[in-house]
Amino acid sequence: TLFLDRIERLNPEINAFVTVDREKTLKMAAAADARIAAGSAGPLTGIPIAQKDIFCAEGWRTTCGSKILANFVAPYDATVIEKMHRDAGMVSLGKTNMDEFAMGSSNETSFFGPVKNPWDRARVPGGSSGGSAAAIAARLAPAATGTDTGGSIRQPAALCNLTGLKPTYGVVSRYGMIAYASSLDQGGPMGASAEDCALLLNTMAGFDPRDSTSLERPAEDYARDLDKPLAGLRIGLPKEFFGEGCDAAVMAAVQDAIAEYRRLGASTVEVSLPNSHLSVPAYYVIAPAEASSNLSRFDGVRYGYRAPDYGNLDDMYMKTRAQGFGDEVKRRIMIGAYVLSHGYYDAYYLQAQRIRRLIANDFVAAFESCDVILGPTSPTTAFKLGEKSADPVQMYLSDIYTIAVNLAGLPGMALPCGFAGGLPVGLQLIGNYFDEARLLNVAHRYQ
Ligand code: GLN
């Protein structure tokens, strides 16, 4: 009840949670207590967690930050939720606010209103997992789930002084996680430390026959290497991440972190990701294309919102979608439908897919001379509420350092690396495929 009480007191101001159900939470807590008493507890049994409202949880309202799902109660558990509740005995505190359908970098596109950054309530927490980040930063929850399609775990973690991990694509099941851009979406943990993230990932990860892109791999203990010394570690510094585009104060904090890594025995080597300047344009073709297709299921027929007054079926579709989706979602659907349409497909969508391949190849080449790649997570610290919401391109540029990782399917982490102007700065670590344990080790030794 410690966290539930804090949520009751502080959430009206922070707006990190959209749904809290005290009764359900207390019931789960009682079940966890029974499990502990019976001696069958796991390492996370009874640990409270906040769930991003993109994960379906049976009997819980699951909104994805949208009016179109504002009254949708999920009939089943996402695999991630099932693993946490049933296998691990974790206790969900509620569902956290997010950008509508995870589209955004500031949590301002949510139907349920913006989330405030606990470090400065006039500023954004980042997005789209902004509610999860703010919940942890305001100590309304010790840990949370997030999803990362183009930085949505790492950027809010950076802006709220947290540690967050986006796993290799395919490591965490997407079953029951409402789809935004299916080839990029990946769920992952957010917490106060790399150690917390490792324990959470142990619970979240694993092959799932219900997700066709889930990867069948032997189970791993992601915490196994946490304490390994860093002597001999080769850190790659992409020259494209250290040029212009990043705030000087953010860069200074990143440089301090690099110096600390050298003290810890790591060496640094310059690497190059020559196509990284193309990642934002390629992403903002591919992600909307997939979104326009995924979001066609919200038609007012099977579930969710339906416009109250309409003529024929077409009119019902149009009114439902016009009223149910917010501006940013509509913008993405229009971009997506356009780049996929006959006559434009080759020029935009296929071209973006080619760039995606080049970006992935850049990483493969870079990892020939280093073990992890390091850089900033976000080019700025938390910006003011409203500062970028009128200018989509400015908003999209918040993602310059995070998006390439999703296009390549690689694992990436954000972790705190000091402050600039009183606001948290997040370091980013990028690993080779399936190198989560190493990333967590590199983060943990620094922490
Ligand atoms: N800002 C990006 C977007 O709006 C990232 C979103 C995400 O990772 N879910 O698409």
Describe the protein:
With 447 residues, this protein is an alpha/beta fold. 37% of the residues lie in helices and 14% in strands. The protein contains 14 helices and eleven strands. The chain has an eight-stranded mixed sheet with strand order 4-6-5-10-11-9-7-8. Helix 3 links the parallel strand 2 and strand 3. Helix 6 (194-204) packs antiparallel against helix 14 (436-446). The longest helix is centred in the C-terminal third of the chain and has 22 residues, at 345-366. The structure holds glutamine. Residues 102-105, 128, 148-152, 180, 287, 399 line the site of glutamine. Keywords: ATP-binding, Ligase, Nucleotide-binding, Protein biosynthesis, Transferase. Residues 1-440 form the Amidase domain. Heterotrimer of A, B and C subunits. Pfam families: Amidase (PF01425).
Largest sheet data: 8 strands, mixed
Q: List the quaternary state of the chains.
A: single chain
CATH architecture of one domain: Alpha-Beta Complex
Q: Strand order, biggest sheet?
A: 4-6-5-10-11-9-7-8
Rough outline: globular
Just give the CATH class of one domain: Alpha Beta
What CATH calls the topology of one domain is Amidase signature (AS) enzymes
Runs with pLDDT <50, length 5+?
A: none
Topology as a string of helices (H) and strands (E) = HEHEHEHEHEEHEHEHHHHEHHEEH
Mean pLDDT metric: 97
Number of separate strands: 11
Small molecules in complex: glutamine
Helical content class = 25-40%
Based on CA atoms alone, the radius of gyration comes out at 21 Å
Q: How would you name the CATH homologous superfamily of one domain?
A: Amidase signature (AS) domain
| Straight-line N-to-C gap | 29 Å
Determine the strand fraction and express it as a percent band: 5-15%
Number of helices: 14
From the helix content, strand content and strand pairing, which structural class follows?
alpha/beta
